Amino acid sequence: MLELFLELGNLKRLPRTGWLLRGIPNPEPIAAHSYRVATITLFLADELKSRGVEIDVEKALKIALLHDAGEARITDVPLPAQRYFNKVEGEVKALGEMLSVTGREGEYLSLFREYEEELSVEGKLVKFADRLEMLIQAYEYEKAGFANLDEFWRTVEKLRESELYEYFRDIVEGLVERRKKLHRGLAHSHYNNPQLSVEKSSKSQTR
Q1: What pTM was estimated for this model as a whole?
Q2: Which listed CATH number (1.10.3210.10, 3.30.110.40, 1.10.240.10, 3.30.230.10) goes with 2-206?
Q3: Dihedral (Cα; 126, 132, 138, 141), 10-degree rounding
Q4: Inter-residue contact 65 to 38 (CB < 8 Å)
Q5: Are the CB atoms for 60 and 126 separated by under 8 Å?
Q6: Mean pLDDT of the chain, nearest integer
Q7: Does residue 48 contact residue 167 with C-beta atoms inside 8 Å?
Q8: Which tens digits make up the pLDDT trace of 105-157?
Q9: Contact of 190 with 197, CB cutoff 8 Å
């Protein structure tokens, strides 16, 4: 399995390309995203369990840890590129080959499909955590001064449509409210200091 472990190390080096295409220099690596997805999954799964929802926490964590593993081989393919080929099929093929050394690739691929197709409460939770983590990262980048990330926030509607939203409405809407406050603060700063707006606009254009 050593070769597998070494290949998974690619996730520590490969960037999340969506941020890169939006002009963010040195964006987070895939592994950073996957780690926070896994921790979010853990805490949300335990919360669901405490509220009487039947959920296998271990299974949810397995799915979270596997959900981006194939990108160690195919990289993080940005949405514009996905118009030309099926990323999921590529991930399934890559995962099957990568995980064959474990002798349990069938089990792991089944878990991956539960995530992609949201076939189980565990798969739905990891998909929810994946989207939530992306929005948290978008908020953090905006807080750091990066602009033009509105398209990522369309994912809020997918979270609201999830059957898990009723359990975690406060988290989702709390994040949305933080973003509104951030933007109100930025608008106020620019109103009081028009030169700041010019400088920020120039900064965005040169990235």
Answers
A1: 0.89
A2: 1.10.3210.10
A3: -90
A4: yes
A5: yes
A6: 92
A7: yes
A8: 999 999 999 999 999 999 999 999 999 999 999 999 999 999 999 999 999 99
A9: yes
